[in-house]
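Would you mind writing out the residues of a protein together with its fold in token form for me to study?
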Amino acid sequence: MGRQVILLAASMLALGCACAAAFMILGVRSAAKDQALRLEKRTDEIVQAVQTTWHEYETVALWIHHNLRTKTDYSTFWEERRKFEILYQYIHSNGLQVEAISYLPNITHDLREDLEAESAAYYQQVDPSYKYQGFTGLVAKDPGAPGDVSLERRPDHPFYFPQLLVQPIVRDNEFYIDLDFLSTYFALLMTQAFEENLPIISNPFPHIGPNARSKGNVMFLVHPGVPIVESWQDTPTPNRAMASVLFSFSAFIQRATQEHAAHPEHSESIYIFDTSTTSGTYVLFGAADLTVGADGLDVSPQLVTEPVSWDTLHRETPGKYLLHRDIQVAQQIWKVVVVTSPYEVQSQTTYPIVGGVIMLFACFVVVGWYLSHTYRDLKLQRLKQATEAEKASLIVQHAAAAADAERQRNEYLAHEVRNPLSSALSACSFVGSALSDGGQRLNNEAIVEDVNVIKSSLTYINDLLRSMLDVNKVASKQMVLDVVPTDLYRDVFEPVKTIISRRENPFTIVLDVPSDLLINTDRMRLKQVVLNLASNAAKFVDKGFIRLSAKVLSSKAVVIAVEDSGPGIPEEKVTDLFARFQLSLDVLNQGTGMGLHLCQGLVELMGGTISLDSSYDSGIRGCPGARFEIELPPTVVIQNTPAATTLEITETKISEERTGPMQFSNELPEGLNVLLVDDDTVLRKLLSRSLKRVAPTWTIREAANGETALSLVRKNHTGEDAGNDFDLIFMDHYMASVERQMLGTETTQAMRHEGVKARICGLSANDRRNAFISSGADHFMLKPFSSEPESLKADLVQALGI
């Protein structure tokens, strides 16, 4: 197996190397070919740009000739000068850079003096500082150096071709005003132009004027115009006037290359040679460098001033980096040469080389991965059995942990329920024995004591089961908070004080809270937490106090504290104080650890924290006491609310048990018609008896399900008992049956749909208040509710909304 793996890996490596080498070879060849094609295309584009620029200058000359070709009366030449100035402005607006434009009519000797006088008057008006010299001509100082010229007067010739109209009239162009093109320097050009009837350009010569050095060499483009046929039978008549354009070759080459300079692909140099010389030597007209800057762009072409010969370029530049094209420009043949930087061309082959290296590296990576993967598979196979064994062991451990948790819960329930249940059974036995012994006088005090034991035991079991349900809701994230504005003093602290004060206590209850402190929270759940903490404290305090306090920190967080002067909490109990199944702190008083765990869950659900203050001391000798702190987040604080608004906000809509300090009428309305809807016969009878005890004048009817309740309501509303509508309806939520029956919320919604106006109070052992209120109920009460007359009265007053 190992040998086969090595052979396969070697084959993969060899194949990868071959593919990488082939990729590099083909890539380099393809890159070189592609680069050659791009250089050819680039050269063609530059040559086309040079030709286009030449045609632009040629078109301007033809346009000038067209506008003035019919002018033969020179007595009104002053008006033509103004038109010619406007013509120049049009040309200048096109962006074409020219040094001067002019019109050259054929002037005979007898017209010379009049035209010179007219020109002198015109230029004296335009520029008084200009010294007009009349008709002049350029003469070569040295026949062997055609670029070295001088200016001289030409007063004694039979005819002339002067630059009669010149624009713009600036200091640099004064030397070209009335310049005769039949002078020695331009005589051959004029002759060739008339013979061939085609545009002619001069050789470059130094610009004459103050800024000659900055202008560089200039060239004249002379255009004879187009021969015109006056009628279809006539022969075209050659023109006897010329149009000329004086332009700088530097401006020419910059215009031709400006578009390529703005979008360079790579650095390159452009040279233009004249190949039509009689000596056979190529004359360099001008050159420009297109250099790619650091940002990939260049502002404009950089002119090359250092002279270079064609032979030097051809000899020193490799053939594939030097491309050239010949183009016809007037009577000359120009050679446009494009030289590309060899370093930038070679960089195009970098990609296939890098790609080949990457392929080679990838091949090694794949082979390495294959070897490591194969080794890993072998290792995994060896570890598979050990992993399966470990997995089985973890399953056993998890099962044992689940069984242990189940055992802890069962032991907790057995411990917490067995004692109060045994006490209740014993008390029931005592009461039964006393009642069955007819010959023995009943001891009322003993019976009352036994009944209180039964009541407290069953109340404890009920609270325990309710707490377990709430703990499960919190743990499974099914509990939804009903956040409303809550007055801590009226809605939480005073009701808790009232409940704790029902018993004869050997301590005082102190409330320390601002009367105007409101918070946005779940009113019932916060009261449940504070009541749980205060009730636990009441079981242990023999003297001193229980203090309920609240304050607002600088961070706007609210801190609620429940502190007492009891015996304190042993250190060994502190660690597991908030554990889920913590056994009672005091078996005799039946304190419950489940309540503290529920308090922690509810406070965290409200976004706060609960903790035991280990540094607290009550100040009473032998009674260190305990202090629990609840800190709620700062976003819930509402302070400085006016008293009227406070009373309106804190009006309680729903109550778990009516124990608040607000004063209600002690007298219930007389003669109300009440309907009890519950599937439990015993609960109906007990509720009926409880109601009769506090409201003996009420008429109470019963229904076992929603359908029966609807039938009774219809009968009293529109049936044979019409006019005897129910005033108050108690509606249970879940009503068991073999077949599905209507829920309490569905029955309530149906009653409201039929127009029932009675007060409806929902009943459930679970918190269904939102569901009942949404379906149309007016109130909600948790089962079982208090059967104590005063508490029941308070609940009924709240249910009736009076």
Residues 50-229+238-337 form one domain. The radius of gyration is 57 Å.
